[in-house]
Amino acid sequence: MKHLVSIDDLTKDEIHEIFVKTKKIKNSPTTYRTTREHTILANLFYEPSTRTNSSFFTAMTKLGGKVLNINNVNYSSVTKGESLKDTIITMGNYCDVIALRSRTAGDALKAAKVSTVPIINAGDGNGEHPTQTLLDLYTIWDKFNRIEDLTITFVGDIENSRTIHSLDKSLTNCNKHYRDTYNQEPWPKSDVYYLTRVQKERGSSGSYSMTQDHVSSMHENSIILHPFPRNEEIPEWFDDDPRAKYFEQMENGLYVRMTLLMAYTEILSNKVYLTNNYIWTK
Ligand code: NCD
């Protein structure tokens, strides 16, 4: 069985297939509306979420499937001391695929080891966030037609941002720069600026904000991404700038997750395997 624990679980070819399929879905979302009619996704979220949880929910619903939404584990047996292992085994009896968000890096891998259904890591502590990376990469690919030979500057909480960790891993042959929260140096000229908030819940502190000087130093063809939620990193006055791609980025999250759910539930039905060119054929 194939799980999505780390962005490294997907080959470059598979990522490219995901882009192509995502573009098709984005152009014609209703074409796929009954393709997963009897499929159930469990959204098992141990940490707060707006975009990831909602877009997984909407993605499965748009494919005709159903969602078991445990987005506040306080209302589940987790409050009675139930372990991750027991919760995952339990949910495997009631659903076909699990999107798991957890508080500790490594939890998604632990879950994958005991799960009878595919685990999709929806963010594990300060570990990884591979589905976010796919929508980040898709947004970059859509703009530049490639995900290589680009210059990217990561800004923010480099150490604790799981979205940076996964995106950083997946971008090869790129020229990368890092500016953490306290680094006041100007940002180097880049194609992509990827900003993240300070992860206060993981013990980080401080804050930073993009200024008019930063904006003036960016070339016209660059893009600014942010996984959201934002705090003060990107002031709202920047939102109407054509380089602000973060709202489109979050929209892409829906289509990327539709693609992923289609792929991961095909595996389940054993009709098609997630290997080159075979994911989408049925
Ligand atoms: C991110 C996350 O949860 O890691 N949010 C998201 O999924 N879009 C970023 C964050 O919380 O800072």
What does this protein look like?
This protein has about 280 residues and is of the alpha/beta class. Helices cover about 35% and strands about 15% of the residues. The protein is built from 8 helices and 8 strands. The chain has helices at about 10-25, 50-60, 85-90, 105-115, 130-145, 160-170, 210-215, 245-270; strands spanning about 40-45, 65-70, 95-100, 120-125, 150-155, 175-180, 190-195, 225. The strands form 2 sheets. The protein has a 4-stranded parallel sheet, with helices on both faces. Helix 4 links the parallel strand 3 (about 95-100) and strand 4. It is globular, with a radius of gyration of 19 Å. The two termini are about 20 Å apart. Residues about 270-280 have low confidence and may be disordered. It binds N-carbamoyl-L-aspartate. The site of N-carbamoyl-L-aspartate (NCD) has 11 residues, from helix 2 and helix 6.
Lay out the secondary structure.
Elements (H helix, E strand, L loop, with lengths): L11 H16 L12 E6 L5 H12 L3 E5 L13 H9 L4 E6 L4 H8 L4 E6 L5 H15 L6 E6 L5 H9 L4 E6 L11 E4 L16 H6 L5 E3 L20 H23 L14
Parallel strand pairs: 1-2, 1-3, 3-4, 5-6, 5-7, 7-8
Helix pairs in contact: 1-5, 1-8, 2-8, 3-4, 5-6, 5-8
N-carbamoyl-L-aspartate binds next to α2 and α6.
Summed up, what is this model?
This protein is α/β, with parallel strands linked by helices and 282 residues long.
How much is the average pLDDT?
A: 92
Range of strand content: 5-15%
Strand order of the largest sheet: 2-1-3-4
Provide the list of bound ligands, each named once.
Answer: N-carbamoyl-L-aspartate
Low-pLDDT runs of 5+ residues are 269-282
**CA radius of gyration:** 19 Å
N-to-C span? 18 Å
Describe the biggest sheet?
A: 4 strands, parallel
What fraction, in percent, of the residue positions are helical? 25-40%
Dominant shape:
globular
Pattern of helices and strands: HEHEHEHEHEHEEHEH
Total beta strand runs = 8
Helix/strand-derived class? alpha/beta
Helical segment count: 8
